[in-house]
UniProtKB/TrEMBL annotation:
Keyword ATP-binding found: yes
Database matches in SUPFAM superfamilies: CheY-like, Homeodomain-like, P-loop containing nucleoside triphosphate hydrolases
Protein known as: C4-dicarboxylate transport transcriptional regulatory protein DctD
Pfam families linked: AAA_lid_14, HTH_8, Response_reg, Sigma54_activat
4-aspartylphosphate: residues bearing it: D55
Domain Sigma-54 factor interaction stretches: 146-375
One GO biological process term: regulation of DNA-templated transcription
Amino acid sequence: MTTIGEVFLVDDEAEIRQACRQTFELEGYAIRTFKSADEVLTEISPDWLGVVISDVRMPGMDGLELLRRIKELAPELPVIILTGHGDVPMALEAIRLGAYDFLEKPAPPEYLIDVARRALDARRLCLENRNLKQQLETSFDLESRILGNSPGIKQLRQTVASLATIDVDVLLLGETGVGKELTARSMHECGARRAGAFVALNCGAIPANLVESELFGHERGAFTSAMNRRIGKIEQAQGGTLFLDEVESMPLDIQVKLLRALQERVVERVGSNKSIAVDYRVIAASKIGLREAVRSGAFREDLFYRLNVARVAIPPLRERTEDIMLLLRHFMGIMSERFHRAIPEISPETMSKLQQYYWPGNVRELRNVAQQLVLGLPLDLSAAHLSDDGDDSPRLFDKAAPLDDLMEQYEKQVIEEALARNEGKIEKTAQYLGIPRKRLYLRMQKYGLQK
């Protein structure tokens, strides 16, 4: 028989505990026995799938007081009361306090099993209904946060709704501008930690020598400019969520310390040897596949596996073209209110151009386009992804060519455009493209490109 929940038995008599353990284990139930009410209370939680069976007369806290305490911790948890005394007033008091049932010892084994089975079925149904209600509320809320009707976005909302109610660390993967922080914030605000803080840290935007202090904090005098104590981002996320964006940019020496903080949920401020326990959830995000970063030696393998518990891929805008006009109208509405301008009509030519555009900047670039349209400015679309003659299709496909040649031509154009946008700066261009700097150098050499 499949185990369908857990049974906690509380009785001060060793013989009763042993007999009940054998009875339940023979029927395939997981059972734990306790000799006092105080011992079992520390094991009770509001979401526990199980049932408590307790004797009434015990040294210290009796069964009725245990029932009262359990109902304070988990009001819907079934509690079955056993007594060796046929005491009708006591039975009535137990039922009044919320006992699931009241049995007189010695209860026939088959009857005790049947009552426990029914109690577990009721408990499971209660938890399933509660989880379903939470998921429905989360799903409804997510539709107003993560917009779109494409299959990829519907799947993303479903995944976020599931992970929001599970306290597990998450790794988000997606190109620049796809909405990784929006996804992380939605997961936080629709989950059990929404009462806590959402603390974001862009690992790629902080100088390498300051990352440790930003994450872990520092004590006064820890280094020359440390005039006062500083609380780090991890401590700020106590009871909430820490969002680490561009985690692939984190220096290797800091990755070692982050791994310990994730494994043990403790931090040590710079300049201190005191460990501070912190209760937080981590959502990390990366523009590149971290496996590639591990292979190149830029990212620690052990940290990758620690973060890669629940991985969520966010689709780029070019893979969800049916969402473009929905998102555009949404952003135009926001810009219209911000700048007190009417929402303009979009010409069929412009709509066609936007639908066929490659969107290297994804949703962030689309938001900029919405602002340009509302303000009546010329559209600033990447030249590498539009033809020169006004045709909406990319010029790469104007003539037949082998696929490999087309891919190389396209890659060269993208790199040229990225270099131009970032003023020829290699580090910024590599970050913009979401690739390691070494890989960018190799591609530039391959295509004969200069800074």
